[in-house]
Write a sequence for this structure.
């Protein structure tokens, strides 16, 4: 298996992606979604203004009172001020605009990514395309990490776990909450461990924390497949499906992380001597090997 | 029942995570600079070895310990006091 880098070293977006582009995004290319939040505002105010106009002329409703008009105007201005302040402050704690990038997906991307998670052996080019120094939205590049699949897979995993226990008459409603918080805690521990080891090995990488959360969340897809196979075909089916998904997640993680953690030369397949690159390779393999362990640890008690 | 024991083992709640984090940070904060770390060769001055581009794992670890102790000293006092208060009141 060999990964050929692009001859020019840059990623060229396919032409059908470019044709899809103007059809989907009617606004400027920097925007990920069509912004519909503000379009309803002026129309709503206009409609309510029109509605209250003829009512006010009858002089029999509360709205004709100038004092309550003033109070209403003051209240709405206070509400909009509060909303602005909340938006400004929320952006400091949770990077909302950065989160939006990870949810800019479409059905085609989700389908291709799920196929990649289960069968990563035929895919050749694992590099993330960049557009003027910022990574391209996941909608246009199947290699970019996203948060939609991990979030949906997490919720589906909780539901499938409840289903699995229900078929064995072991289900109780508080089990769902317990399983959810337990899986979340293991996710947090794994992300913290990866962050710590990345810091200790002094890797200069552009992997953000959210990227790591996304990569750690991809294993839930394999877990769901394993548990469903265990429900349908018994323990043999569970073990077979889990083995297949563990192998594919292992290969997927190694091929994705290799490009981000290792230096350029080593990622292209040439053997680079040196303790630093060897340590980084060990780190990549350790992160990839932790995925099957977690996959088995979080599902083995569900299948009897 | 066996499955109940298993799920009790598995029920790793968020509260347990917070407890673990506080305990770990306390453990790092308690390591004394002169009496202990320098004696075993993990003092602050031994971490800043060379100024090459590759600090190495031991230097990074010592750096991490020193920064955690400096940064988390005051917040740990607050968090520990809150924990003591809560445990006194609610057992």
């Amino acid at each position: 298996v060999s990964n050929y880098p692009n001859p020019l070293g840059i990623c060229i977006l396919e032409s059908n992606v470019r044709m899809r582009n103007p059809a989907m995004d009617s606004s400027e290319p920097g925007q990920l979604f069509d912004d519909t939040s503000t379009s309803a505002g002026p129309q709503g105010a206009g409609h309510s203004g029109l509605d209250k106009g003829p009512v006010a002329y009858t002089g029999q409703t509360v709205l004709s009172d100038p004092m309550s008009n003033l109070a209403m105007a003051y209240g709405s201005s206070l509400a909009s001020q509060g909303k602005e302040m909340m938006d400004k402050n929320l952006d400091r704690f949770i990077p909302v605009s950065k989160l939006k990038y990870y949810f800019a997906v479409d059905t085609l991307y989700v389908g291709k990514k799920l196929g990649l998670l289960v069968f990563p052996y035929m895919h050749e080019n694992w590099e993330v395309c960049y557009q003027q120094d910022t990574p391209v939205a996941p909608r246009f590049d199947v290699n970019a990490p996203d948060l939609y699949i991990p979030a949906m897979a997490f919720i589906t995993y909780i539901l499938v776990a409840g289903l699995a226990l229900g078929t064995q008459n072991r289900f109780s409603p508080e089990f769902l909450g317990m399983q959810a918080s337990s899986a979340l805690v293991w996710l947090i521990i794994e992300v913290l461990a990866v962050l710590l080891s990345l810091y200790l090995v002094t890797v200069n990488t552009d992997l953000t924390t959210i990227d790591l959360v996304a990569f750690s969340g991809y294993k839930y897809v394999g877990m769901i497949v394993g548990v469903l196979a265990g429900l349908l075909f018994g323990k043999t089916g569970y073990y077979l499906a889990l083995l297949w998904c563990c192998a594919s997640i292992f290969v997927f993680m190694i091929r994705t992380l290799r490009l981000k953690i290792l230096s350029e030369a080593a990622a292209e397949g040439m053997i680079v001597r040196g303790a630093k690159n060897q340590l980084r390779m060990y780190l990549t393999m350790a992160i990839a090997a932790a995925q099957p362990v977690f996959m088995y640890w979080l599902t083995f008690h569900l299948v009897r | 029942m066996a499955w109940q024991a298993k799920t009790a083992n598995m029920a790793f709640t968020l509260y347990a995570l917070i407890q673990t984090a506080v305990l770990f940070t306390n453990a790092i904060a308690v390591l004394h600079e002169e009496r202990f770390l320098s004696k075993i060769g993990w003092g602050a001055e031994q971490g800043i070895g060379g100024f090459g581009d590759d600090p190495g794992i031991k230097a990074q670890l010592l750096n991490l310990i020193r920064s955690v102790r400096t940064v988390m000293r005051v917040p740990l006092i607050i968090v520990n006091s809150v924990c003591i208060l809560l445990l006194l009141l609610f057992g």
